[in-house]
UniProtKB/TrEMBL annotation:
Protein name per Swiss-Prot or TrEMBL: Coproheme decarboxylase
Functional summary from the UniProt entry: Involved in coproporphyrin-dependent heme b biosynthesis. Catalyzes the decarboxylation of Fe-coproporphyrin III (coproheme) to heme b (protoheme IX), the last step of the pathway. The reaction occurs in a stepwise manner with a three-propionate intermediate.
EC number from the UniProt entry: 1.3.98.5
Gene this chain is encoded by: chdC
Molecular functions per Gene Ontology: heme binding; metal ion binding; oxidoreductase activity, acting on the CH-CH group of donors, oxygen as acceptor
Organism: Microbacterium telephonicum
Enzyme active site: 145
Family stated for the protein in its record: Belongs to the ChdC family. Type 2 subfamily.
Signal peptide span: none
Length: 243
């Protein structure tokens, strides 16, 4: 079987959708971005849909970690634009991030951490599609973390893994206001999975993460840091956030 034959085909129920996260850190000391700088940034944001890219959100991560100020979440999916120059793959997200970082408002910011992921068919729940691909609107808070399974995980019998993930899924399903956006990042970064979780109430993110610790699947975790959590903000709010 060739690589192309073994790949999971894209269907309406299993769309391919790349996504990119970037954590930006500003210089110290700094001053608030000017109105013209924010206007330039807004224009760059407004141009993204024509390139087949969606800005899911900008997030204020001030104080959540000492090494971060702003989180950027971009995504794209084939068929979302008819623009002839819209590649709508990972290269379009790279170009979009560069366009935002070249604006006066963000030019002096360093990229502290970044990772790209893509939706692939889930291990056992074939119906799982990330919220950003199934039309869920962005929520007020985002909790993002990378994830690496134990070395033994992928060698365990399929029925054992399926049972553990089913238990994990049942616990998570109780938090109906939390939107899961799990994507694969095998080979795209140092990790295996990216887990972006959205909610309008950060307490629900805290409670869900705590509850999910009490599952058998927790025994097969090798790495799940760094965590980045922030409040979704619009460009106009950056005058205060980035000051």
């Amino acid at each position: 079987m060739t690589t192309a034959e073994s790949a999971t085909p894209e269907t309406a129920e299993n769309p391919v959708g790349y996504t990119l996260f970037a954590i930006l850190t500003g210089p110290r000391p700094r001053t608030a971005p000017s109105a013209s700088a924010l206007g330039e940034l807004q224009s760059a944001v407004d141009a993204l849909p024509g390139q087949g890219v969606t800005l899911r959100g900008l997030y204020d991560v001030t104080g959540m970690r000492g090494d971060a100020d702003l989180m950027v979440w971009l995504h794209c999916a084939p068929g979302t634009t008819s623009a002839p120059d819209a590649a709508q793959g990972p290269e379009s997200l790279q170009k979009a991030l560069r366009s935002l970082r070249r604006t006066a408002a963000l030019a002096a910011f360093a990229c502290e951490w970044s990772a790209m992921g893509v939706h692939r068919e889930a291990e056992f729940n074939k119906r799982h599609v990330p919220g950003y691909l199934r039309g869920e609107h962005a929520r007020g808070w985002l909790c993002l973390y990378p994830f690496v399974r134990s070395y033994e995980w992928y060698l365990l019998p399929a029925d054992e893994r399926s049972a553990m993930l089913a238990e994990h899924g049942r616990k998570g399903a109780r938090f109906t206001d939390v939107v899961a956006n799990t994507v694969s990042t095998f080979g795209l970064s140092d990790y295996e999975w990216l887990l972006p979780l959205e909610s309008d109430d950060p307490i629900h993110l805290v409670d869900m993460m705590r509850d999910l610790r009490a599952t058998d699947a927790r025994r097969h975790v090798r790495e799940e840091v760094p965590f980045y959590t922030g409040r979704r903000v619009d460009v106009a709010e950056l005058e205060e956030v980035l000051a």
